[in-house]
From TrEMBL:
One of the Pfam families matching this protein, by short name: Methyltransf_12
PANTHER family: TRANS-ACONITATE 2-METHYLTRANSFERASE, TRANS-ACONITATE 2-METHYLTRANSFERASE-RELATED
Protein name as catalogued: Class I SAM-dependent methyltransferase
Molecular-function GO term, any one: methyltransferase activity
UniProt keyword terms in alphabetical order: Methyltransferase, Transferase
GO terms (BP aspect): methylation
Annotated transmembrane regions: none
UniProt keyword annotation of Methyltransferase present: yes
Domain Methyltransferase type, first and last residues per copy: 64-161
Length: 285
């Protein structure tokens, strides 16, 4: 990993690198055990229990999922009654999501190919009751203030943003979780050159360069409030969705009052608990 302090990762360069990386990884993800699309087609719900509680009843609500990837979370909301639109900049991801929607009987689910910042024009000025952004999304966005303004413009009056993300504190840990490995305030651009993918570490890949940004909790809350949204809560959780550091204990998700079938990972007993996930809900007047 390098920190491109010389700003050599121009807008075109970072977007091209990240787009090539995700286009290549979509077919790996759709065929992976990590995503287990066969299990999803059979009815598995990919939402976490705390998300269901914090978002609430979505029946009949218009829900937009930004950076939806292959659509498993999007379609999980659809199965719970939401009228869903998923948006992603990867044509391969959008195609996979549309195919999956047809397979699970959610033909009304809509998937749109677009960069996040271009979402208002791509969606024709449409607004939504809920804008949802899920795990591992914000690190791909260089302009958090612009993202928040985009979200605010996509919300109907009385609507809300719901964000569930990996906590930046957890992302700074060493592999063994015993020390800091990254600077919490090193916002980026951070350039990586790593083969494989989180869904299959050994998968052969050609497009391995990615450019990412780290956003502190303060950055997120400040961007949301500056965009005119009113934070309702910010919550932190001591588990992750993958083995973020070595030695984590695999458990069934028991968060919330309606725990799902998801698997979570915690630091073993006797180790200090740390925030690994956070959620934020903010409403538009």
């Amino acid at each position: 990993m390098t920190n491109d302090n010389d700003r050599s990762a121009t807008a075109d360069h970072w977007r091209q690198a990240n787009h090539a990386l995700w286009e290549e990884r979509v077919p790996i993800h759709t065929g992976s055990d990590f995503y287990d699309l066969a299990g999803f087609r059979e009815g598995r719900d990919d939402l976490r229990g705390f998300e269901l509680d914090e978002v609430g009843d979505v029946t009949g609500k218009r829900l937009l999922h930004l950076q939806c990837h292959i659509g498993t979370d999007t379609l999980s909301w659809a199965r719970r009654g939401a009228v869903v639109t998923g948006l992603d900049f990867s044509a391969a991801a959008v195609a996979a999501a549309r195919e999956l929607a047809a397979d699970v009987g959610q033909a009304d689910a809509r998937f749109v190919e677009s960069d996040v910042y271009d979402a208002p024009s791509a969606l024709g000025g449409e607004t939504f009751d809920i804008v949802y952004t899920g795990f591992g999304a914000l690190c791909w966005l260089p302009d958090l203030a612009g993202w928040a303004r985009t979200v605010a413009g996509l919300l109907a009056p009385g609507g809300f943003l719901y964000l569930a993300e990996f906590h930046p504190v957890g992302m700074c840990l060493n592999d063994d979780g015993t020390a800091w490995a990254e600077d919490y305030f090193a916002r980026g651009p951070l350039t990586y050159d790593e083969p494989g993918t989180y869904a299959d570490l050994d998968a052969p890949t050609r497009h391995n360069r990615s450019v990412e940004w780290q956003h502190t909790i303060g950055d997120v809350v400040s961007a949301v409030t500056a965009a005119g949204l009113r934070p309702e809560f910010l919550r932190e959780y001591d588990f992750s969705l993958f083995e973020q550091v070595k030695g984590m204990v695999k458990e069934r998700d028991t968060s919330g009052t309606r725990p799902g079938s998801a698997t979570v990972y915690r630091l073993p007993e006797g180790r200090p608990a740390l925030p690994l996930i956070y959620s934020l809900r903010a409403s538009r007047a």
